[in-house]
Amino acid sequence: MSYTRMQDEYNKEVRRSDIFLSMFKTKTGRCTEEEFDAAHRVFKASGKPLIYTYFMKTDVSNDIEMRDALNSLWDFQEKLKRLGHYYTQFSSIEDLKVQFRNQLDLLINDSKL
Asked: For the chain, which residues make up each domain, given as ranges?
């Protein structure tokens, strides 16, 4: 229960985080994009949270029913490009774990974590 929208509570936690990780498969949800925007605004002001964005490589149906979902994903990827934010693609959960662990190792080696 929250006095405001629950999303406001999530956004508050995002702003207080050291790392923000977002993962996408076939669509970008409105709330997830809102969380990314909250993280990005705070990052620009303070350098935290560090933002990591991952997109799963997937075979998607070419059914017209997927149009809105895929357009939301592609629009978000274009937004990231305009912001100069590079995202990473992964092919499986194991691949994601390895890639994110590598990022954490880099942070540890650079004494940022």
From this structure: 6-109
Question: DSSP H helical segments within the chain, as ranges?
Answer: 6-16, 30-46, 67-83, 93-109
* Amino acid occupying residue 66: M
34 contacts 6 by C-beta, under 8 angstroms: no
DSSP state of 52: E
pLDDT tens-digit readout, 13-25: 999 999 999 999 9
Residue that the structure tokens 């629950």 belong to: 6
From the list 76, 94, 86, 83, the residue with the least C-alpha distance to 53 is: 86
User: What are the tens digits of pLDDT across the range 79-96?
Assistant: 999 999 999 999 999 999
Which one, of 15, 22, 21, lies nearest residue 46 by Cα? 15
pLDDT at 49: 96
| Helix 30-46 / helix 6-16 crossing angle, nearest 10 deg | 30
| C-beta atoms surrounding 19 within 10 Å | 15
